[in-house]
Sequence to fold (239 residues):
Amino acid sequence: MSNIQEQINILVEVQGVELEILQAGRLVNALNDEAAALDRAVAEREALVASEKATLDDLRKAYRDLESEAKLNAAMIVKSNEKLRAVKTNKEYQSILKEIDEIRKKNSGIEDRMLEYLETIESAEAAVKAKEEELAGFIQSYNEKKETFAVKEMRERKAVEALNEKKARISAHADPHVITVLDDVKKKVRGLAVVPVQQAICMGCHMNIPAQLFNELQRFDELRFCPHCHRIIYWKEPR
Fold:
């Protein structure tokens, strides 16, 4: 086997390892994307629960405000009743009675609103409880999935480390100049940088190469490049 053929074999092997590294890296990125999507889903659900709890708090505060107003009015009624015992004229008596009646009507309206609030609060509490239970279940599932993602990601990162070590071992047997050429070609083309030629067709761009170049490839006396896509090409003996 010629030296150039050996170098091409090394390049092909290095390229294969790089593809494995790329695939593992893509899987790591996919796992990170899935984990990020889960994080967003949890955050959205937590925000929804927080919003509904804030609404519930507002309802409770409004109820307490009405309750305080009703108590204040009840106290005013008590004071007005005390004043009735001290009045000396019928006019004053009728005026206080009217005042008490107005306060009672006002309180009646407040009490009606309080009942409405209680019904709304009860419904809101049930909705919040249901959402919290749903969130708790989702978070449990989220934690399990995150743990699975973490295990898979760690496995893929270790695989990448092992592949990088393998690449380094293989590259150590290559001519530094050949590795430099490979790196230069990789910057210029998309996909594979080293491809075989079969039946005078470049397997990178699937274009025919000149007959003379095809014959020269079989000599394995130097690196050669596809005149169309500029990849490193080599002759692959048909099986």
In short: The longest helix spans residues 3-84.
